[in-house]
Amino acid sequence: MSTSAENTVIESPEDSAITTTQTDNKPATDYAEILYNGIWKNNPALVQLLGLCPLLAVTSTVVNAIGLGLATLIVLVGANAAVSLIRNHVTEAVRLPAFVMIIASFVTSIELIMQAYTYELYQILGIFIPLIVTNCAILGRADAYAARNPLLPSIVDGFMMGMGFMIVLILLGAMRELVGQGTLFTDMSLLFGDMASNWKITVFSDYPDVLFAILPPGAFIGLGFLIATKNYWDQKEKARLDKLKANQEKVSRRVRVTG
Predict the structure, then answer these.
(1) Which residues sit opposite 201 in a β-bridge?
(2) Mean pLDDT computed over every residue of the chain
(3) Least C-beta-crowded within 10 Å: which of 59, 70, 86, 244?
(4) How far apart are CA 20 and CA 26, in angstroms?
(5) 106 within 8 A of 74, measured Cβ to Cβ
(6) Considering the domain boundaries, does residue 13 fall inside one?
(7) What does the alpha-carbon distance between residue 225 and residue 211 come to, in Å, rounded to a whole number?
(8) Strand partners of residue 183
(9) Is residue 166 part of a domain?
(10) Considering only CA atoms, which of 56, 10, 107 is closest in space to residue 215?
């Protein structure tokens, strides 16, 4: 005679409570930290010093910087999303080749879109669009973050890393264009069409062009200035926090003594 009651597993309230607690204790994704890392703390250009070849080569104007920055951002977001989706279905042996193929697919798509809609800008950026495939910042984020995290955090991480990279590109391009030509937003119509033909701002009239700022040596000096500024700000902020922490410790000691 079959006794189904003996084969029935009854879950006790204690087991349910343990299961619920374990589920509730799962750490939530800190999107504010992802934003802070991408824009400032772990910036690909200023901290990791990745992707410097295109960064230094094409940032002679703001429009070049925006064009390359947008292309890199789109590839970062797309690659992170794709890698996150396949992270549990790719073996260790083919992981990196698969990631490179994904990145190359997105870069090729961006290249074809630029050829179709912004051909003149594509000609200016030249080989540095295909070279996005070799940008260590993209492969690094795919392997270090997207391959280990769910879809949405991976997309946010790719977007913020791309934004951090693009902000540095734009700042460096603006510095070089301003010092080299005395203008800002020259030839923005190459990217945004006829509506941007009047966006050019002449900061200094009758300005003698400074060729040094437009050439690669000017890019090295400009990037060095940006990195030095960030390091100075970080050191100043660290000193402020250390001083605040020391003052709090003094107050807590006084409270213990008087108490």
Answers:
(1) 184
(2) 87
(3) 244
(4) 10
(5) yes
(6) no
(7) 18
(8) 202
(9) yes
(10) 56
Host domain of residue 102? 29-258
**12-32 mean pLDDT:** 53
Q: What is the pTM of this model?
A: 0.84
- Residue 66 belongs to some domain of the structure: yes
- DSSP letters along the chain, please? ---HHHHPPPPPHHHHHHHHHHHHTSPPP-HHHHHHIIIIIT-TTTTS--SHHHHHHHTTSHHHHHHHHHHHHHHHHHHHHHHHHHTTTS-GGGHHHHHHHHHHHHHHHHHHHHHHH-HHHHHHHGGGTGGGGG-HHHHHHHHHTGGGS-HHHHHHHHHHHHHHHHHHHHHHHHHHHHHHHSEESTTTHHHH-GGGTT--EESSTTPPP-HHHHSHHHHHHHHHHHHHHHHHHHHHHHHHHHHHHHHHHHHHHHHHHH-
Please state, in angstroms and rounded to a whole number, the distance separating the CA atoms of residues 54 and 33.
27
How many folded domains does the chain comprise? 1
Distance (Å) of CA 232 to CA 42, 59, 126: 16, 24, 35
Q: Angle CA(155)–CA(161)–CA(167) in degrees, nearest 5?
A: 130
CA atoms within 13 A on the CB side of 228: 6
Count CB-CB contacts under 10 A for residue 124.
18
Q: Is 243 inside any structural domain? A: yes
